[in-house]
TrEMBL record:
InterPro entries: ArsR-like_HTH, HTH_ArsR_DNA-bd_dom, WH-like_DNA-bd_sf, WH_DNA-bd_sf. Residues 11-83 form the HTH arsR-type domain. One of its GO terms (molecular function) is DNA binding. It comes from Rossellomorea marisflavi. It holds the Pfam family HTH_5. Keywords: DNA-binding. This is HTH arsR-type domain-containing protein.
Length: 204
């Protein structure tokens, strides 16, 4: 499975501008599934699921990664071709489809994060001490509102990706016995109205 897949085809873009297909793709990003398994997860008919899977396969967004025989029937396991998707600059005139795709992808990421948080073990959210130093905490959660130029925000995105790559590199070098599994998700996007209201101290 690739990292980021660059979408260059309008039909691919339209496929990922559909909220259900985005939900389906996120399942296929997690692990391989059969049509039967997905029909049970989404509580939809196998025929409808197979239709969407065939369309995603035809568009090159999903692929069959393995087959298994069960009771004389060949089961096909589908998986996403990448862990993330981003439109090519040639598709930028299609602003509505791009906006819809990005919105649905981010909404599904938030849903995935919510699901992981609700199923996290209680000790994952317990602090071993009451340190006020964030570097001593065993989890992170924060929301920020920053006024900055677009160039500065793009610099931040680049640095954030570099930091995640460094985290992955350092983790790869660690002993397996010392490792714990962490789920990390990040969001950042432009808003029109202020999110937080700051009341200045009366003495200022």
């Amino acid at each position: 499975m690739a990292g980021i897949y660059i979408i260059k085809d309008l039909d691919q873009l339209k496929a990922l501008s559909d909220p259900f297909r985005v939900r389906l793709m996120f399942k296929l990003i997690e692990r391989p599934y059969t049509g039967q398994q997905l029909s049970e997860i989404f509580e939809l008919s196998r025929a409808r699921i197979h239709y969407h899977l065939k369309e995603l396969e035809k568009l090159g967004l999903a692929e069959i990664v393995k087959t298994e025989e069960k009771n004389g029937i060949i089961q096909k396991f589908y998986q996403s071709v990448a862990t993330g998707f981003y439109p090519h600059s040639s598709l930028f005139p299609h602003t509505k489809e791009i906006s819809d795709m990005k919105q649905y992808l981010m909404l599904e990421m938030m849903e995935q994060t919510t699901s992981k948080l609700l199923s996290a073990p209680s000790e994952a959210l317990e602090d071993v001490d009451s340190s006020e130093d964030p570097s001593e905490w065993n989890m992170m959660a924060s929301s920020w509102e920053i006024q900055a130029s677009e160039d500065t925000f793009k610099w931040y995105i680049k640095e954030q990706f570099k930091l995640m790559e460094e985290l992955d590199r350092r983790a790869e070098a660690e002993e397996a016995s010392s490792k714990k599994r962490y789920f990390v998700s990040n969001y950042g996007f432009r808003v029109e109205e202020p999110v937080f209201e700051r009341v200045k101290d009366k003495d200022q």
